[in-house]
Amino acid sequence: MNRTVLLLSFGLLATGCLGTNRASPRGPQAIQYTDTGRLGERPQIDTEQVEAFGFQLYWDSLIRDEVLTSVSIEGDQLYAFTRTNRLYQIDIHSGMVNWVFDVDLPLSFTKGGHPIAEWTYEVRKGQKYREYDEIFFVAKDFLFGLDKKNGSEIFQARLNFAPSTPPRASSTHVFIGSWDDRIYAIRKDKPTLPNWSWRTRSDVLVKPEYRSPTVFVASTDGTLYTFDAATGRKHWPFKTGKPLRAAPLIYRSLLYLPSDDFNMYVLDPTDGLVHHRTCVSEAITSDPVGIGKTVYFGTKTGMNALLRLGPMKENKRKMDHKLAWTRKGAHQILCVGSQDAYLLEGNDTEGRSVSRVNLKDGHYRDSLPLTGVDFWVTNPFSPSHSERSHSLRGGIMILGFRNGWIFALKETATIPGA
Question: Which residues lie below 8 Å from residue 22, measured CB to CB, with a gap of 6+?
């Protein structure tokens, strides 16, 4: 298969036919397709309505002659995949395309929102040369490794198993779940055959998690398995009463484990000590997302906000948490602003909207109705982060359209100098 890398830094325009858009809900819409929804035709935006909601159009970008099939954030970049099997890396600040890679195969695991894994190398003191950061993804039964900066191919390897999860990377390995109930570890320098594997007692359906030196694997047998990432030696297991169908999350040195037994567990990743357990009265259905001091996770009926309560107290091993609020009817966290969280509500039939709720207590403020948005992206950056490059990415709402357009709306209060 031939591979092509194109370096781009400009906006693109096109025309063509994509088909008609779904029916719009009643009421004035802030963003909507034109009547035909043709390929390349810019969705209409009501700037007054958007600005009244506290946002501004930050940028809009068109990927010419392309139909989008996936839009996601990984690390500090935005990625879009197209029907022509091309992967685009897009700068989250400007909407400019950094590079394009011809995959030649359909990208796998796009429905979960995180088909791509990133590995960022730390710069050590006295290190003369910096190692290049990498991204990894699965396309059908191939694993690809690319240079994150320029999109050049590092390797492609045909997998000798059927992948069931997106990849997760460490400094030396890439970890992938399989439909044979196993977790496979593939060495980056020898990707042709797995370095080690371990079979659980049921399907592995969610992306593994990693925190040096351990990889964490959630299985539908109800157990979180932990392994030495380099050798595959099994460490402590953590058993719950029901299947694990949402991915574990390492955030701020703690592991957040959602379970079908209605509980969100907060564990010490070194030994499995339970710091906290929150019961939400129904199975947790979405992967947890950490933003600021809060971890957001969803159930069938709504979104929940689990708040971390301050620093670890002296002579106390456990970190206190509390369930700050629950928003019924919401099913995805889109971004957080200076004082509010923005949640996706509704469905394709009745219409979708973005609701603004207070970060601390979940008090509802108002909503922004939207029509025809095909890809809703969760932005994990907080505008209150101490690192400036991180905080500048906070408060940005990314909206993707199949006809090639991507919009970025930014909360006005988080724009420097606003």
Answer: 348, 372
Sign of CA dihedral 249, 204, 259, 201: negative
Q: Is the distance from CB of 115 to CB of 138 less than 8 angstroms?
A: yes
Supply the pTM of this predicted model. Answer: 0.90
H or E segment and range at residue 324: strand 321-328
pLDDT band at 312; cut points 50, 70, 90: low
317 token code pair = 């091993």
Residues in a beta bridge with 274: 267
pLDDT tens profile 55-111: 999 999 999 999 999 999 999 999 999 999 999 999 999 999 999 999 999 999 998
Asked whether residue 413 carries a pLDDT value surpassing 60, the answer given is: yes
Q: In whole angstroms, give the CA distance from residue 381 to residue 402.
A: 25
Handedness of CA 142, 69, 340, 354 (dihedral sign): negative
Q: How far apart are CA 146 and CA 167, in angstroms?
A: 13
Task: Parse the chain into domains and list their residue ranges.
Answer: 10-100+334-418
- CA dist., res. 354 & res. 17, Å (int): 29
The tokens describing 411, both together, are 């909360």
Lookup: tokens for 197: 């594997």
Question: pLDDT band at residue 318, thresholds of 50, 70 and 90?
Answer: confident
- Please, which pLDDT band fits residue 34 given cuts at 50, 70 and 90? very low
Question: Which of 226, 324, 327, 254 is closest to 286 using CA atoms?
Answer: 327
pLDDT bin (cut points 50, 70, 90) of residue 223 is very high
Read off the pLDDT of residues 264-307 as tens digits, 9 standing for 90 and up: 999 999 999 999 999 999 999 999 999 999 999 999 999 999 99
CA 123: distance to chain centroid? 25
Bridge partners (DSSP) listed for residue 178:
163
- For residue 279, the tally of other CB atoms under 10 A from its CB is 10
Q: Token digits for 199?
A: 């079979």
CA angle 8, 122, 271 (to 5 degrees): 125
